[in-house]
Automatic annotation (TrEMBL):
Quaternary structure (record): Homodimer.
Gene name of this polypeptide: dapF
UniProt binding sites for substrate: N13, N65, G75, N76, N171, E189, R190, G200, T201
Catalytic activity: (2S,6S)-2,6-diaminopimelate = meso-2,6-diaminopimelate
Gene3D superfamilies named in the record: Diaminopimelate Epimerase, Chain A, domain 1
Protein name, UniProt field: Diaminopimelate epimerase
UniProt-listed GO biological process terms: lysine biosynthetic process via diaminopimelate
């Protein structure tokens, strides 16, 4: 069967996207999804996203990591799916959609900037030299010096496969405070099992963690793939009105025989 796919990227976190409103794609075929995401023998992507109809929503976003297995919430993927829905004519400039972690609102402007409302966060574990929280996906956050020189792949993999995380996994974010109070964040991503150019739920988690170290909303964040902003309100029990803001761009359309 010939399948049309669309590549999108949000600050270098890239996705294969398919309009699956007719429900033709077999979501049980995890090997096929992994093959399509493979960067040399396939199309290549950090993740695979199906846009589907869902009663009561503009659409549903079904997310798979590059390993072909169903993933949790993808912030950059969510922003790209809003852009994809707009290109399909499913929405105009506002979206209300369902994702792995529940409901999301988003707005998109003519420059391709997408503002995605993330779910509230009411639980942050603060360790001696780390923070651990879930922003739709689980994130371990560590603040370091000389982030440029850090071996993110090796250090991130060690944490992701340690005794505590080896079964369920976790994403691992390393952050460094920059001048003008911006943050530089690099992420080892679960399910990609490598460093990605950015991770939306990861920079969201890192911005919230940075608030324990004096950062205030909105936090500007530099990633290898570009710049994002995270806005939030601090409440008595955690964080609310959390927005992940940044570009989401169409790259190309292709067809693949599956
Ligand atoms: N890149 C995504 C995160 C996708 C899910 C993550 N790899 C996981 O398995 O937890 C993002 O932008 O949030």
């Amino acid at each position: 069967m010939n399948v049309t796919f669309h590549k999108y990227q949000g600050t270098g976190n890239d996705f294969i996207m398919i309009d699956n409103r007719e429900l033709f794609f077999d979501t049980r075929n995890h090997n096929l999804i992994a093959q399509l995401c493979e960067r040399r023998m396939g199309i290549g992507a950090d993740g695979f996203i199906l846009l589907q109809n869902r009663e009561g929503y503009d659409f549903e976003m079904v997310y798979f990591n590059a390993d072909g297995r169903p993933g949790s919430m993808c912030g950059n993927g969510g922003r790209c799916t809003v852009q994809f829905a707009r290109a399909l004519g499913v929405i105009t400039d506002k979206a209300f959609f369902l994702a792995a972690d529940g409901n999301h609102y988003a707005t998109v402007d003519n420059t391709g900037l997408v503002s995605l409302k993330m779910n509230d966060v009411h639980q942050v574990e603060t360790g001696l030299d780390y923070y651990y929280l879930n922003t739709g996906s689980p994130h371990y956050v560590q603040f370091v010096d000389a982030l440029d020189e850090l071996n993110v792949f090796a250090e991130g993999r060690d944490i992701r496969y340690n005794e505590r995380f080896k079964l369920e996994g976790t994403n691992v974010n390393f952050a460094q405070l920059q001048p003008e109070a911006a943050l530089f964040v690099r992420t080892y991503e679960r399910g990609v099992e490598d460093e990605t150019f950015s991770c939306g739920t990861g920079v969201t988690a890192t911005a919230l963690a940075a608030s324990y170290r004096g950062a205030t909303s909105p936090v500007s964040i530099k990633t290898l793939g570009g710049n994002l902003q995270v806005a939030f309100e601090v409440s008595a029990t955690g964080f609310t009105n959390i927005y992940l803001i940044g570009p989401a761009q169409y790259v190309f359309t292709g067809t693949v025989e599956v």
